[in-house]
Amino acid sequence: MDKSAGALHIDIFHSDNSTYGTEWNGVRLNDDYHRLYFIAEGEAEVTYNETTRKLVAGHTYLFPTTTLFRYACPSHLRLLNVCFKMTLDNGLDALDLHPFHVIMPAMDMTTTLNKMVEIDALVQKRSFAHQLSIRGQILTLLGPHFQASDTEKLRKRRKDMKRLAPALRYIEQNLETGITVADLPRLAAMSRSYFAKKFTMTFGMSPQDYIRKQRIELVKRELRLSSQPISNLAEDLGFSSASHMSREFKHHTGYTPKQFRAFDRFFD
Predict the structure, then answer these.
(1) Do the Cβ atoms of 60 and 101 come closer than 8 Å?
(2) Backbone torsions φ then ψ of 97, nearest 5 degrees
(3) For residues 176 and 128, what is the distance between their CA atoms, to the nearest angstrom?
(4) How do beta strands 103-105 and 77-87 pair?
(5) Minimal CA–CA distance to 266: which of 42, 24, 22, 93?
(6) Which of 45, 132, 184, 236 is buried deepest, with most CB atoms within 10 A?
(7) How far apart are CA 12 and CA 121, in angstroms?
(8) CB–CB of 97/158 below 8 Å?
(9) Is the separation of the CB atoms in 101 and 50 below 8 Å?
(10) Distance between CA atoms of residues 216 and 257, nearest Å
(11) How far from 194 is each of 87, 112, 170, 184, CA to CA, in Å?
(12) What confidence category does residue 6 fall into, taking pLDDT thresholds of 50, 70 and 90?
């Protein structure tokens, strides 16, 4: 990765090592994490965002964050996967800034299988040594996926991201305590009108909408990882009340936080 990439962060949410039949079938919405799949046996089909792809044995698959993920198995499947988020400084999605191949032949069936099995075995272990080992295995498996040709569009996007980085860092650090939108152009050394234009061109949304989206993603992560009552989460995450958080959350996701926590389980 180039010098504008910044530090690399990997957050791991879930892993799986299971054999399925036709019950592996369903739809997930708005998953703000990446998936690395290894198909050891059988086959399946997934649709992510607007792309449909057949999954076959002997390959690894790297999927970006998705607004829609539909999955189905026609008969038999042994699937090993890890759900994680790989970001650069300020929470920027690495897969959104660097070219990658979705599908790659396994470097070696036995080696790949062993690495995925080890990841699954270590995910629940919290020691520093175990976490280093997991990340090392993931990075080894991801390497071939990122041997893709760069594009002028991505190079320009990284350049724009670098200019916006101080404002993005401020947003990330203050999501829970409050953000003064008027300060963002100054942090990026831009005029207010140019900042709004550059930000919207880069992210496809206004700074205000980006902040709302990031706050909702923060709520989603806490709902997945924490068993705290909704009212406690709302207070911890800087919402004026639990009802305020619920209204905002439902507006962006279609679910209340309680419904999301009940329905949004990593599929087994």
Answers:
(1) no
(2) -115, -15
(3) 27
(4) unpaired
(5) 24
(6) 184
(7) 13
(8) yes
(9) no
(10) 10
(11) 26, 47, 18, 11
(12) low
CB atoms within 10 A of CB 170: 18
Tokens of 24: 């592996």
As a whole number of angstroms, the distance between CA 227 and CA 26 comes to: 25
The sign of the CA dihedral 236, 240, 245, 246 is positive
**Mean confidence (pLDDT) of the chain:** 89
Q: Does 55 score more than 50 pLDDT?
A: yes
Q: Which amino acid is at 56?
A: V
**Average confidence (pLDDT) over 88-94:** 79
CA-wise closest residue to 122 among 138, 144, 106: 138
Burial class (CB in 10 A: 0-12, 13-18, 19+), 7: exposed
What is the reported pLDDT for 265?
57
Contact of 39 with 74, CB cutoff 8 Å: no
pLDDT value of position 1: 41
What pTM was computed for the model?
A: 0.78
